Each structure stands twice: as C-alpha cells, then as structure tokens.
Amino acid sequence: MRTLRTIGIVSSAAVFLLSATIAFAEGQATSTAYKNQIGERRAAIASTTQKKIEVVREEAQTRTVAQREKIAERVADIQDKVKQQLAQRLIKQFENLNKIWTDHFMNLMDHYDAILQKIQDRANIAANAGKNIASTTAAIQSAKTAIASARTAVIAQAAETYTPDTSVVTTTTSTTMPSGQKELLQNLRNSFKNLHRTLFQDLLALRDGPMKNARKAVQSALQTLTKIPKVDEGNATTTVENSNQ
Amino acid sequence: MNQVIDQGSSNKTETWYIAGAIVVIAVLALWYFYERQAPTAGTQPTAVEQAQTPSLSSGNTTADISADLNQIPDDSAALNQAEAASAQDVSGF
Fold first, then answer.
1. Inside any domain, residue A238
2. pTM for the full model?
3. Which end of chain A is least crowded, N or C, by CB within 10 Å?
4. CA gap A30, A107 in Å, rounded
5. Is residue A74 part of a domain?
6. What residue of B is the nearest CA neighbor of A40?
7. What keywords would UniProt list here (chain A) (predicted)?
C-alpha cells in the first residue's frame, strides 16, 4: 500500500515536471518559429551577398598577383630579418583589415535588412487592421534603397586592394649596400604609411557615409511605424514575406 | 519483524531511485530545449570583437524592433582603435 502511494506521488511529480517543460516549450514555439523565419531569410541574403563579395575579392587578388610577387621580392631584399618579417606582416594586415571590415559592414547590412523585414511585418499587421501605413511604406522603401546603396559601396570597397606600389619602392643603389638598404626601408615605410592612410580613409568614409545613412533610414522607418496608433495590437508575429531586395 | 524493516528500507531506496531518475529526465529535457533555443556561435573576427552584431529578438512589436536596432554596437570606437593599432604597427617599421 505504501509502495503504491509512493509510486503515485512520484508519478504525479514526474507528470508535472514533464508537462511543465512541454508547456514552456510550446509557449515559445510561435515566437521561435518567427525568429527562425527571420534568421533563415537573413542567412539567405547573407549567402548571396557573401558570394558577391568573394567574387570581387578573387578578381582583385587575380588583378594584383604580379604586384604582390614584385613586392615580395622587394621585401626579400631586406637584410634585417625582423624588419623583413614586420614588412610581410604589414602587407598581409592591410588586406586582412579590409576583409574584416567589409565583412562586418555587410553583416550589419544583413542585420538592418532583417530589422526592416520586421518593420514590414508589423506594418502589414497594422494594414490588415485597417490602419494607414502609407508613411511607413514610403520610409521602408527609402531604407531599402539606402541599404542597397550601402551594399554596393561595401562590395566596391571589398574590391579595393592595398598592396604597396612597387614603382615607388625602388632604390638608386644596390640593396646589398647599407645605403641601398636604408633607401629600401625608407621607401617601404612611406609606402606603408600611404597605404594605411588610404585604407582607413576609405573605411571611415564608408562607415560615416553609406553605412550611417542606412542605419538612419532604418531608424526613420521605425519612427514612422511607432506613429501608427495602437500599432502593437494584433498578432505578435506574421509570416515573413519576400522582399524585393 | 526484520522482514518489515527490510521491506520499508527497500521501498525508501526504490523511491529515491525513481525520484532521482525523474529529476535527471526533467533536467535533460530542459537542457535539450535550451540547447535548441540557443543561437549558434560562429567564429568572430578579432578586429571587430567590440562591434559584433547580436541576434534578433523573437518578436516584431515596436519595442522588440527598437531593442534590435539599439543592440547594434557603435562601430566608431572599434574602427578608430583598429586605425590606431595599425598606425602603431606602421610606425614600428
């Protein structure tokens, strides 16, 4: 009798714990499905843009093969092994910095695009409830244009190469002579300085121009959405629609 | 008399085994659910560690969207830091 009672209590506890887990999981299911939809769409866009970026990068690499080989020869002429390694590292660093930041900017664009899709979804809910969403629709379109412009600018930046110009890294005397070594290092130093300045001018211009414009446009679309009366009423989620991006 | 005591002890042990199994199952179920919910972490570039984009929220109310937008980090500091670090490397040549 006591065993039966114990089994009964334990079974009840088991049912309670498992049902609580299932109920919690089901409660999250709807919002999770929406989040997954947004995530999937973002991944699809990211895949497309990433392919474009990879193509332009490969083209840029092919275009500068000869230049990179020449500069590698110049760097090999440096007798100071520490300086030689540092020069090799700097050459790789400029290309790597451009890659990292253009990837990051493109990732941000994917993020803005996903946010814009959410704005569109909420606007659709409001429209279905009979509300006027004209200003939001216009703002969404402007934001799409701004994001597209920023994507174009990021791809153009990804196509840029930052390899030292071999025509300015020349020496009037042989690099086996101390004076030749000094001249070689000085010219390389100047070349690296120029590359650094150009690279960051380009990246900062991208950040402060098209990237900032895209963010502002998405913010503006959200502002117009918040101005729709009782916009947050209705279903919390809706099916993700394909955009024209 | 001894048999009664043994039976009682056996029942208690059995109860603990069952209770332990239930707790383990419940914990595993919760763990499984949370693992499925958790976003997968990818490799992150070191130079923009401070500017990683967070995952989006699961809702689309204006509060959710506003939170999503506000969670995007400001690039200004990270890019300026990258510029300074690179300038230092160049000047070290």
1. no
2. 0.72
3. N
4. 26
5. yes
6. B56
7. Signal
